[in-house]
Amino acid sequence: MIEDESPTPEGESASASQLIRSAATSDLPELLTVHREAFTGTRGVSLGNVYLRSFLRSFVVDPTALCLLAIRDRALVGYVLGEPVDNRRRSLRLAPAALFGFVTHPKVWWRPGTGRAVVGRVRSAGKGPEPEISALPSPAFALVGIGTSRREQGHGVGRALVDAFEREAMTRGYRSMQLSVYKENEVAVRLYEGSGWHSILDSGDALYYAKPL
What we know:
Layout: E1 3-6, E2 18-22, H1 28-38, H2 43-46, H3 49-61, E3 66-72, E4 75-84, H4 89-104, H5 114-124, H6 131-134, E5 140-148, H7 157-171, E6 176-182, H8 186-194, E7 198-202, E8 206-212
Parallel strand pairs: 5-6
Antiparallel strand pairs: 1-2, 2-3, 3-4, 4-5, 6-8, 7-8
């Protein structure tokens, strides 16, 4: 169980310190609420709560994965998700929930880029990672997602979660970290670059970042 009192990073708006801790299954309802708020309008949220609960729960119960929460004033205000790089098992386990989401929310198919994203997932399941990612010092840990409640944005929650994520990856013996982020997510790009991550690949829609440990 990770439990860490994290101060507000220098350069962020002043606010009370937050507790960073590992998630438990009892946190899932509040975690789902924060995730929906942080990613309103995205394809994943549009697939509905059945898919979202399965997705978030997979990081909470899998001992090889990571789900850290930021708690402030006894409320969950942010989270970060991680797993070993090239972990295809999660995608396979989530396939039934994703299919259910597409069937019960058919309008998702009409979202721009949905078809391309599905084809990309299918193709990636049958091949290894890109050479730039394969070249990272092994073993490597992936930062899969990070989100904060809107009222806490700009108060250092994201930076505290990234710092805690890096410390935990190092504690687990990983030698490098990797993530991908959509180019238009400028807030996240600034967060990662400000935390010392460097760009290793531009795939068109997304940027891949890495950081050695």
